[in-house]
From TrEMBL:
Species whose genome carries this gene: Aurantimonas manganoxydans (strain ATCC BAA-1229 / DSM 21871 / SI85-9A1)
UniProt-listed SUPFAM superfamilies: L30e-like, YlxR-like
YlxR domain boundaries: 16-86
Superkingdom of the source species: Bacteria
Family matches, as Gene3D superfamilies: 3.30.1330.30, YlxR-like
Region feature (Disordered): 208-253
Pfam families the record matches: Ribosomal_L7Ae (PF01248), YlxR (PF04296)
Lineage of source species: Bacteria, Pseudomonadati, Pseudomonadota, Alphaproteobacteria, Hyphomicrobiales
Official protein name in the record: YlxR domain-containing protein
Domain annotation Ribosomal protein eL8/eL30/eS12/Gadd45: ranges: 100-178
Biased composition (Low complexity): 209-220
Amino acid sequence: MTEDAGDEAEVELNDRTCIVSRRTCEPADLIRFVRGPDGAVVPDLRRRLPGRGAHVSLDRTLVDEAVRRKLFARAFRAQVTGPADLGDQVDGLLAKSALGALGLARKAGQLVTGATKVDTAIRSGRALMVIHARDAAPDGIRKLDAARRAVAATGGTEISSLRLLDADELGLAFGQGNVIHAAILAGGAGSAAATCLRALATYRGEGSGSVSGAPAGSAGHVTDTGNDMGAPLQRRSGQDEGRGLDPAQEAEA
């Protein structure tokens, strides 16, 4: 059997196999794609579209590789149009899903904004996840990170934090401007929002899990340049860091 034939057989045998890595994964760790009527590759994040599906792990680099190596045509056994910006399309859909879920969590009363309310939610044990805007000032992040570490040090549940979205994006989702810090609270809508954000973080290669209480600067620790859900973000320029609000402004955001 040729290598290509073996690849096709593996895809056919298990529809939970990533067509790039050849690893079998849980559905939540895969992105499903279908072939549209016009032959275009269409992301199916909700896994509801009809037709034969092809799966790629929740990883931007693997989606780009699937397009580059024309692996969708092999998986669908048909000519397809794999747009060069498919990776960007998936990122946009995941971000839209996350923002929509945050909006629902807000309506359900399972989300608070503003540094003071977020600090209270952390210390009371109500916070599931902390969200910082990408353009948040480092000082505000450090103060809330200290609260997370304090909770973990006293035997409380470790609380993860993410820095994936800009203040404008968060403000749009929450129906208000200048959202710099937010906390997702326990509840069905809150859990769904946290799941969507973790998926976006994983897709962007920013890891998963939390390590509250890790030494400053260690892998997974929240710093002014990254998330605590994996590898830190690439260091931002001084110009970008200058966009952060001062502590007085952040207290109201």
